[in-house]
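dude i think i finally got it to work??
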Amino acid sequence: MSRHVTIRLDEEFHDRLKARAAALGTTVTALITEVTERELDEDRKNFLSGIEEFADHWGYFQERFGH
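look at this
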């Protein structure tokens, strides 16, 4: 079951959103849904957290294992 949600966007942002959706071959609704689902995905958050931790130690990896 899906729910109807109303949001307010300024015209410039809405135009940008429509253009992005069109470039991706999708609808504004589908794009907003995809981005929101991605933001709420705990596995994605854990993955991004791991990347940040890896980036914090990148210098060590370069020194230890070369470029």
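The chain has a mean pLDDT of 89.
im so relieved honestly
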